[in-house]
Every structure is written in C-alpha cells, then in structure tokens.
Amino acid sequence: MTVVVFGSFGLIMGSFLNVVILRYGERGISGRSACVSCNQTLRWFDLIPVASWIVLRGRCRYCKKSISFQYPMVEVATGLLFVTIGSTGLPLLAVLIALSIAALLVCMFVYDLRHTIIPDRWAYPFSMLALTLSFLMRGPDDSLIILALSGPAAALPLFSLWALSRGQWMGFGDVKLALGMGWLLGFPFGVLAVLLGFVIGAIVSVGVLLPLPVYVRALARFTQHHSWRASGAGFTMTSEVPFGPFLIASTFIIWFALMYHVPIPIFSLYG
Asked: 12-37 in b/e burial notation, b at 16+ Cβ within 10 A?
C-alpha cells in the first residue's frame, strides 16, 4: 500500500514539477497545459503521468511533433524517489519535509541540466528545509554546532574554486546547493557527497566525450542551453557542463544510504 500511495503521489507530483521547470522564468504555473509545438490545449487524457506519453508514443496527438523524454523521466524519477522516502518509516513531518526536499532537488537537477543555472528560488528553500530536517532528526548526542557547521563545511571546497576562478570553474549556485547538502547529510557525509559529485561528473564527462553519436544526440535534444548543447562536432573539452546534476545525484546516493543504514565503503573500511 505504501508503494502504491507514494508512487502514485510521486507520479502526479512529477507531472506538476515538469510544469514548474518548463515555465520557470517565463510565465506562471496557472493555466491549462498546451503543446509546446502547436500550442494546442491538452485534454485530461493527454496528461496522465507516463501513460499518456507511452500511448501517444512520445508525440503530440494533434501536430505529431515529438514530446520531450523529460516528461516521463521526471515523473518516473519523482515516483521512485517518493516511494523510497515514504518507505523509510520516518515520522510524518519528517517524510513531508523529505518529500519537499526531493521535489526541489528534481527541479534543480533538470533546470540546471537544461540551462546551466540553479535558481535561488529553489536553492534557498532547499537549504532551509535541509537544516530543519537535520534539526528535527538529530539524536540526543548530536552537537548543534557540528550540525550548523556541516553546511559551510560542504560548501567550502566549491566556494574556494568559485573564488579562485572568479566564477569560471564553478557557478555560485553550486556553492548554495552544497550548503544545503551539508545540512541535509551532516558532517562528514556532506563533504563526501561533494567529492562523489566530482567522481560522477568525471565519469559522465568521459562518457559524453567518447564517440557515441546516439548518446550525444539524445543528450543534446534534451538540453537547451547553447553552450551545453552538442554542436555538429559533438561535445568537446571546452563545452560548459552543469555540475549541479552530479551534486544532486551524489546527494541522493548518500542520503538514501544513510536513511536505510547502508554502509558507505569509505567509512566501513575504518569501522
């Protein structure tokens, strides 16, 4: 029952997050959904999460233009994240805060992937919710000072890169994201998540640079930012790559490992 309830809620929320992501900075989230190609207002049966995209074979019912794979991807990802969080057995208030954090992280992941920027409107609430959740879930022996400093500790490496390069190596949005990561995961796990983000980024970047034309074209169709999109020659070493998605992926990995008490190898070696 938990899987059905949280999974269904996650799919619906994922559909809403798609609207938030695509309309952010352009127009409000109110108003009927319409095809981005022909502007035809969509009916309710065109908006069923995942199912409508599958039935329509990824094309608009009216103009037959392709519908971005982002729609089902975000819906499925949000559903899986909500099931994972809802199955932890955490208190209701903690679950609600955790679900809100997951939703914000999904928004930042996709928006940064498309536009190479993390909006402050999402980064700051994420940090505040992360700090609130950590405070709510702290144990009797947990130090409030360490809890407070865990955010700055995770953000410090990225802030140093940002300051040294004057914003050329690292965007300040990533620094704000790392602040919330530290508060969410605590010390030293927030710092570990930042380091893991670099590892994931390196692996993905190498994969993108390899001569895999099908993979590159699929990624280029998904992204929109001119400096991140592949040109006819594909991605190069000078392509601007958003770092936020790698940080968010590492955050989910460490966060869920902590939730489910899964040993983290680098620490289990010494435990």
From this structure: bbbbebbebbbebeeeeeeeebebee
